[in-house]
Every structure is written in C-alpha cells, then in structure tokens.
Design goal:
mainly alpha
C-alpha cells in the first residue's frame, strides 16, 4: 500500500503491514466528513443559510453520498485496484457513507426530519456505522498470531457470533446504544437483548401483546425522564432539534 502515516507511532506496524490502510482511510474520511457536515449544517442553521438546490429541487447531502458510495464500490469491484487508488476509493466510500448516514432519518421517515427529535436516529446510525468500521479495523489481520498459543479461531469466532446475535436483538428492540457499545464490551449487548423493547421498535410491533406494549410504553417514558443527559450528549454531537416532526 502507501504507508502514508509512517511517521505516526505504531502506524506501520499495526496498520500498514497488517493491510488495514484502506479501512483506516475509510474510517478517517467517514469521521472527518461527519464532523464537517454537522458543523456546516449547524452554522447554516444559526446564520439562516438556505439549503442547496438544483433547479428548485432541495438537494440533500445524502444524494452525493449515495453517488459516492456507488461509484467507489463499483470501481473497487470492477478494477480491484491497489496502493494509492484503493486508498482514494476507500476514502471516497467513507465520505459517501458519512453523508448518507447523516441523513439516515430522512430515508427512514421519507421526510425532512433533520432538525426534529426523529432526526436523532441519524446520529445513532452514524455512531453505529463508525463503531462497526472501528471494530473491523481492530480485529482484522492480527499480527504475530501463534496457532499453538492463541485461542482457537473457532472459539473466538463463536464468541463474536454470539455477541453479535445479542447485539442484533438489541437493535431490533430499539436499544441502539446498548447494541452498539455491546459489540465492543461483552455483556452490554446481552443486557440490551434481555430488557423490555422500546414501544416503537420492530420487536415490540412484531411480538408484544397490547398489555406488554403498554408496559413498554410506560417504561420508555420513565427512562426518558431519567436519562435526559443522554439526549444532551446527542444534542452536543449533532445539534439540538428545534422543529416538530409532522407525521403523515
């Protein structure tokens, strides 16, 4: 590859030699793009800037994001590049993914909910995407592996598979934060999978009877009053919502 950050301590050993450079640059581009997009939209909201448009059509930034992802993914599959071209395409994919996930709520609701309470799902989706990419970065291509001393691969794979299964259940129950951090911290995903699902989650809509759905709704309201600080952290990351989501 390119070994672009050879001056950084540990980069050559853990990233370059391990073949993780494309994923590293994807993750770096993803993070920088998300920070830049949120900074721009927050400044634009504060100063009253108008949204970008083409011939009167509001051009959401998920549009160039999707185009970037499709272009980068297609080029990687079609040409199988290496070195600098692969790093550039990986970075382009990271940029596109960040722009797309930053407006995930719009795709989910098919409505412009960016600055509403429902728009927080975009921040959660971005955190999940970043966490999964970071997990791949730290777990791929381990160096100096010794099959005679290391834990058997099937055992490690089994543990990861079980943990991911609990994380998926947590996601289906609407426990996005527990599911995401549970990927890194074993036990948190199990906690999220075992707890009562949120009333608006896929799990609650699919499996809960009316009585249990009412319990879920009451529990959700209680938690919302207890964990106000979590919403403040989300506001700090993505900006506080100030508009109402009008359900169609």
């Amino acid at each position: 590859m390119a070994d672009l950050f050879r001056f950084a301590p540990g980069y050559e050993h853990y990233v370059f030699r391990a073949g993780r450079e494309p994923l590293f640059f994807l993750l770096l581009a993803f993070l920088l793009t998300f920070v830049a997009a949120r900074a721009y939209t927050r400044v634009g909201r504060a100063r009253g800037w108008g949204s970008g448009s083409v011939r009167g059509v509001h051009l959401h930034h998920l549009v160039p994001g999707i185009i970037a992802c499709l272009a980068a993914g297609t080029a990687i599959i079609a040409f199988g590049p290496g070195g600098y071209p692969l790093i550039a395409l990986s970075s382009l994919f990271g940029i596109g993914a960040a722009l797309t996930l930053d407006e995930f709520a719009l795709i989910l609701h098919l409505d412009d909910v960016y600055w509403t309470e429902a728009g927080r799902s975009s921040i959660e989706a971005t955190l999940i995407g970043f966490s999964l990419a970071a997990l791949c970065l730290v777990t791929t291509a381990p160096l100096h592996a010794d099959p005679a001393k290391d834990t058997p691969h099937w055992a490690v794979g089994g543990i990861i598979a079980v943990n991911m299964a609990f994380a998926v259940v947590a996601f289906l129950k609407g426990k996005l934060k527990l599911g995401t951090f549970g990927i890194f911290v074993p036990g948190l995903a199990i906690l999220g999978a075992c707890r009562l699902a949120k009333p608006e989650s896929v799990w609650a809509h699919s499996f809960y009877a009316p009585a249990k759905a009412e319990r879920s709704r009451a529990r959700s309201e209680l938690q919302a009053s207890r964990y106000v600080h979590v919403g403040r952290i989300m506001d700090l990351i993505g900006g506080a919502p100030h508009l109402e989501h009008r359900r169609r």
